[in-house]
DNA sequence: CTGGTGCATGGGATG
DNA sequence: ATCCCATGCACCAGT
C-alpha cells in the first residue's frame, strides 16, 4: 500500500490544515502501514480508511463544489439545504447559487437500458429536501410516466455541508487495533449510505474531482487516462470482497447506486485486491468520500447495515468473468447465496431487502419493473424486479431467474453476484460456485451444463431486436417464432420441469438445437468421469456420476438428455 | 390437473 | 423485540 501510487489527491479538511495533498509526489500524506490509516503530515490527524472520519474529507466524487460559489455540495446520498437540484435531463444546479453545474447525463444510473422506464429526476430538491422518506410514502416512480425516482430511505442522508467538515481532536482519532471490525462496519455503513465513493466515473464524466476547484491538484484524477492508474491501485488488497460499494455521482439522482471502491479495469494486469487505505481501495483518494459529521450519523445509519453475507466478495476471477475483455469497470454490488427456493423451479430469487433497495431501482408498485441483467457471458436477461408486502415490510424478488440460473448451472449454495458494469451502468449477474457443491436434487432438473443457453442472443442494444421478453427472463427475437410470450413462458417452464419436457414443441426444439453444440459440451462429463453403459429397454444409457450438478448420489443420463433434445 | 402467483408463516438473524 | 427471508400454501388461470 502506498499512497505514492495514487494519482489522486486529497484534501485534509481539518480547517487548520486545508492543504491539498497531492499523492503523486507523496506530499503531505503518509500511510499508516498496517493500520489502514493515513496521516496528514501537516496536522497529524489520521484518516482511517474503512470508517467515516469526521476530520478528513477526501476528494470524493460524491462531493462537488459549485463552480460558482465553490461550496461543497453533495448531490448524492446526502440531503441538505445545499443540495443540488437535478435538472432535466441531467444537469444539476447548486441550490445555493442556482448555477447550473455538472451535467449528469448518462450518469443517471437507471437511465441506462437496464430499465425500461427511466424517468429523469426532475429535481433534487424535491427528492432531497424531505429527507429520508419511507418507501411507503414514496410516490409512484418507475411505473408512472410522470413518476420520479424516489430516494431509498437509506440513501437520503443529511449532512451539514455548509461548514465543510467537522473536526475531531486527536483524542477522537480512531483506534486502529480494532480496526478490523470497524472496517467492516464502516464498509457496510458506507455501502449502505453511499458515502463510500470511488467516483471515478463521476470524475471521468464530469471532469470534476469534487473538491474545491481552486484546490484541485494537477494530479487529481479527473482525467480519464488516469482511471487506469487508479484502478491499478486497488488491486493488492486481498479483502477486495469487503470493498464497499458506494454511491457515485451518477447514481445520485434519486438512486443510490453503489459503486465499489474497487473499481478495476480488467484490462489492467494483474487484478489484485485492495481494501484498506484510500489507495488500497483502488480509490483515488480524491475519489473517496468521507462524510463529515459522519460518525454519529454513520453509527445511526449503521443499523441499516447490509448484512455481511451480502457483501460482495468478488474474486479476480469473478471480475474477469464479468468484465470479459472489455475495458469495463466492474462495480460489485452484492451477492447472495442461492437458497433452495432461489434455485428451485419457482423462478423467484429472493433479494435481500437492503440490497434491493440500495442497488435496484425503487419500485412503488408491487408489479415492479423489468430489470435487464447481463450475465457473465454477456447474455441479456430480463427479470421482473418486484416485491410483495410482507409484515409491514417488503419482500423483494427477481422473477424469472430460472433460465438464467440454469444457464449458469447454479444450484442452491452457489452464489450469484450482482455488479454494475461501467460505463453504461449495466447490471451484471455473475455467479460463483459453492466450494463444495451440496448434494441437492431439488434443482437437478434443467441442468444443461456449462453455459448452455436455450435462448438466442439478440442485439439488446437495439430494443427492436428483442420483442419478446417473458417473465422468465427469456429474450427472443420475434422472428424466431410466432408463438406468444406465453408459449415461451411455457417453454421455459419446461426447462424447469421434466414433466413438461415431453411437451416441448417444435419451436422449442429448434431453439434448443441452436445451442446443442453448447449443450453437448456441457453435458459431457468431466474427463475423470468414466461412463458406464446401462441398457434399459433396449436403449443404451451412458451413465455418469455427476456430483457437481446432481449431487453425489445422482446420475446424469445422457440418453435422457439426448431424448430431451430430440436426438 | 398443473403450474403460476400472491401472500402468510415461522425460524433465524440482528439490534 | 424486531426484522429478514426461506419456504409453504391457498387461490386462480390455463391446459
Low-confidence stretches: 1-68, 70-95, 100-305, 437-527, 544-567
Q: Strands of the largest sheet, in order across it? A: 15-20-21-17-18-19-16
Strand runs, count: 26
Strand content: 15-25%
Integer average pLDDT: 45
Count of helix runs:
15
Short note summarizing the structure:
With 567 residues, the protein is of the alpha+beta class. It is built from 15 helices and 26 strands. A seven-stranded mixed beta sheet has the order 15-20-21-17-18-19-16.
List the helices and strands and how they pair.
Elements lengths: L8 E3 L8 E3 L6 E4 L4 E4 L5 E3 L14 E3 L6 E3 L3 E2 L4 E3 L4 E4 L5 E4 L20 H5 L28 E2 L20 H15 L6 H7 L20 H7 L11 E2 L12 E2 L33 H8 L14 H8 L5 E9 L2 H4 L4 E4 L1 H7 L9 E7 L4 E11 L2 E7 L2 H6 L7 E8 L3 E7 L35 E2 L5 E2 L8 H12 L1 H4 L4 H9 L1 H8 L8 E5 L2 E7 L1 H4 L4 E3 H7 L3
Parallel strand pairs: 8-12, 17-21
Antiparallel strand pairs: 1-2, 3-4, 4-5, 6-7, 9-10, 10-11, 13-14, 15-20, 16-19, 17-18, 18-19, 20-21, 22-23, 24-25, 25-26
This protein binds a DNA duplex (15 and 15 nucleotides) through helix 7, strand 16, strand 18, strand 19 and helix 10.
GO molecular function: DNA binding; zinc ion binding
Subcellular location: Nucleus
Protein name: TF-B3 domain-containing protein
Report what the structure shows.
This protein is an alpha+beta fold. Among the domains are: 3-62 and 181-211 and 221-310, no CATH class; 85-157, no CATH class; 463-564, no CATH class. It has a seven-stranded mixed β-sheet with strand order 15-20-21-17-18-19-16. The protein has a three-stranded antiparallel β-sheet with strand order 3-4-5, with no helix packed on it. Strand 18 (380-390) and strand 19 form a beta hairpin. The chain is globular. The termini are far apart. The model is unreliable at 1-68, 70-95, 100-305, 437-527 and 544-567 (pLDDT under 50). It is found in: Nucleus. Residues 246-257, 272-293 have a biased composition (Polar residues). Residues 334-435 form the TF-B3 domain. This is TF-B3 domain-containing protein. It comes from Rubroshorea leprosula.
Amino acid at each position: 500500500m502506498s499512497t505514492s501510487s495514487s494519482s489522486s489527491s486529497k484534501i485534509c479538511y481539518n480547517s487548520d490544515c486545508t492543504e491539498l495533498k497531492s499523492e503523486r509526489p507523496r506530499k503531505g500524506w503518509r500511510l499508516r502501514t498496517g493500520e489502514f490509516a493515513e496521516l496528514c503530515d501537516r496536522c497529524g490527524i489520521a484518516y482511517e480508511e474503512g470508517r467515516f472520519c469526521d476530520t478528513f474529507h477526501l476528494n470524493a466524487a460524491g462531493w462537488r463544489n459549485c463552480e460558482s460559489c465553490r461550496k461543497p455540495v453533495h448531490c448524492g446520498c446526502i440531503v441538505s439545504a445545499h443540495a443540488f437540484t437535478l435538472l432535466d435531463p441531467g444537469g444539476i444546479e447548486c441550490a445555493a447559487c442556482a448555477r447550473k453545474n455538472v451535467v449528469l447525463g448518462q450518469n443517471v444510473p437507471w437511465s441506462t437500458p437496464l430499465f425500461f422506464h427511466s424517468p429523469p429526476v426532475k429535481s433534487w430538491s424535491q427528492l432531497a429536501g424531505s429527507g429520508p422518506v419511507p418507501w411507503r410514502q414514496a410516490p409512484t416512480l418507475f411505473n408512472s410516466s410522470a413518476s420520479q425516482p424516489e430516494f431509498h430511505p437509506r440513501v437520503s442522508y443529511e449532512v451539514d455541508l455548509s461548514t465543510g467538515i467537522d473536526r475531531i481532536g486527536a483524542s477522537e482519532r480512531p483506534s486502529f487495533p480494532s480496526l478490523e471490525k470497524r472496517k467492516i462496519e464502516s464498509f457496510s455503513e458506507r455501502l449502505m449510505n453511499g458515502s463510500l465513493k470511488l467516483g471515478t466515473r463521476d470524475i471521468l464524466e464530469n471532469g470534476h474531482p469534487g473538491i474545491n476547484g481552486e484546490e484541485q491538484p494537477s494530479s487529481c484524477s479527473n482525467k480519464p487516462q488516469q482511471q487506469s492508474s487508479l484502478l491499478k491501485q486497488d488491486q493488492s488488497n486481498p479483502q477486495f470482497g469487503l470493498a464497499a460499494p458506494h454511491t457515485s455521482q451518477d447514481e445520485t439522482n434519486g438512486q443510490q447506486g453503489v459503486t465499489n471502491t474497487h473499481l478495476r479495469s480488467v484490462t489492467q494486469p494483474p487484478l489484485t485486491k485492495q481494501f484498506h487505505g484510500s489507495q488500497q481501495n483502488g480509490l483515488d483518494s480524491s475519489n473517496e468520500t468521507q462524510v463529515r459529521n459522519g460518525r454519529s450519523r454513520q453509527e445511526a445509519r449503521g443499523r441499516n447495515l447490509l448484512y455481511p453475507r451480502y457483501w460482495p466478495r468478488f474474486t479476480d476471477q469473478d471480475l474477469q468473468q464479468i468484465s470479459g475483455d472489455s475495458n469495463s469497470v466492474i462495480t460489485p454490488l452484492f451477492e447472495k447465496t442461492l437458497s433452495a427456493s432461489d434455485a428451485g423451479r419457482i423462478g423467484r430469487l429472493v433479494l435481500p431487502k437492503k440490497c434491493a433497495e440500495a442497488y435496484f431501482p425503487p419500485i412503488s408498485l408491487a408489479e415492479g419493473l423489468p430489470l435487464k441483467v447481463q450475465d457473465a457471458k454477456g447474455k441479456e436477461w430480463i427479470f421482473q424486479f418486484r416485491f410483495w408486502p410482507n409484515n409491514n415490510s417488503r419482500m423483494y424478488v427477481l422473477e424469472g431467474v430460472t433460465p438464467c440460473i440454469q444457464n449458469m448451472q447454479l444450484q442452491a449454495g452457489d452464489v450469484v453476484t450482482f455488479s454494475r458494469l461501467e460505463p453504461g451502468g449495466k447490471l451484471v449477474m455473475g455467479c460463483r460456485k459453492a466450494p463444495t457443491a451440496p448434494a441437492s436434487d431439488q434443482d437437478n432438473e434443467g441442468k444443461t451444463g456449462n453455459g448452455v443457453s436455450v435462448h438466442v442472443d439478440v442485439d439488446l442494444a437495439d430494443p427492436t431486436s428483442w420483442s419478446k421478453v417473458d417473465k422468465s427472463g427469456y429474450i427472443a427475437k420475434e422472428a424466431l417464432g410466432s408463438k406468444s410470450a406465453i408459449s415461451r413462458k411455457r417453454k421455459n417452464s419446461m426447462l424447469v420441469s421434466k414433466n413438461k419436457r415431453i411437451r416441448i414443441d417444435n419451436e422449442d426444439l429448434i431453439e434448443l438445437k441452436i445451442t446443442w453444440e453448447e449443450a453437448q459440451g456441457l453435458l459431457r462429463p468431466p474427463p475423470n468421469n468414466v461412463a458406464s453403459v446401462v441398457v434399459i429397454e433396449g436403449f443404451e444409457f451412458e451413465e455418469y456420476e455427476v456430483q457437481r450438478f446432481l449431487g453425489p448420489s445422482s446420475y446424469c443420463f445422457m440418453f435422457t438428455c439426448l431424448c430431451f433434445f430430440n436426438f
